[in-house]
Automatic annotation (TrEMBL):
Protein task: Catalyzes the synthesis of activated sulfate.
Pfam families, sorted: APS_kinase
Protein name: Adenylyl-sulfate kinase
Enzyme class: transferase
Organism: Pseudoalteromonas rhizosphaerae
Catalytic activity entry: adenosine 5'-phosphosulfate + ATP = 3'-phosphoadenylyl sulfate + ADP + H(+)
Similarity annotation: Belongs to the APS kinase family.
Gene it is expressed from: cysC
Pathway, per record: Sulfur metabolism; hydrogen sulfide biosynthesis; sulfite from sulfate: step 2/3
Length: 199
């Protein structure tokens, strides 16, 4: 880093920003195969939290590639940079006192751990969508698996690019077994248990 760049300390802290809200700041990091239910569950959870007056923001993998990460492709290097940018953005939002939800395949364990290390203890909640690959492929909501099998898409997670399963995620969900409401209720119960939102 350039020696002329100096960190500026703010007069208002994260704790002070959080005092104006009825919850603690945190990030729920949804990870799993394409079609596992990350965006669907994250959207439903955000809706439920919004109804409770929780200040949230959802960062979705496809959406950030329309702006923040539109210059990136899907090579391993670009995937790593994509996650780095999202992690830093989420860190700013958590610092602002928000409950942030992110829905990204984020296939590499090292990059997910890199993001975890940006946050204070208890702030990073890894949510592993452990939906079997064959179920995800049968859903194929965007037709991406079909294209990947036909060789039209390269570096597609689960087909010709690796997905590294989390070692110890805070929450594991399987949307081939759980209903959407069950998944949302399990997440809300965890947030209450951890006193991130009020019980």
């Amino acid at each position: 880093m350039d020696e002329n760049i100096v960190w500026h300390n703010y007069a208002i802290t994260k704790a002070q920003r959080s005092e104006h809200k009825s919850h603690k700041p945190a990030i729920l990091w949804f990870t799993g195969f394409s079609g596992s239910g990350k965006s669907t569950v994250a959207n439903a959870l955000e809706s439920a939290l919004n109804q409770q007056g929780i200040h949230t923001y959802l960062l979705d993998g496809d959406n950030v590639r329309h702006g923040l990460c539109k210059d990136l492709g899907f090579s391993d290097e670009d995937r790593i940079e994509n996650i780095r940018r999202v992690g830093e953005t989420a860190k700013l939002m958590v610092d602002a006192g928000l409950l942030v939800l992110t829905a990204f395949i984020s296939p590499f364990r090292a990059e997910r751990d890199m993001v975890r290390n940006l946050f204070d203890d208890g702030e990073f909640i890894e949510v592993f969508l452990d939906t079997p690959l064959d179920v995800c492929e049968s859903r194929d909501p965007k037709g991406l698996y079909k294209k990947a099998r036909a060789g039209e898409i390269k570096h597609f997670t689960g087909i010709d690019s690796d997905y590294q399963i989390p070692h110890s995620p805070e929450i594991i969900l399987d949307t081939s077994k759980n209903t959407l409401d069950q998944s949302v209720q399990e997440l809300i119960a965890y947030l209450k248990q951890q006193q991130i939102i009020k019980g």
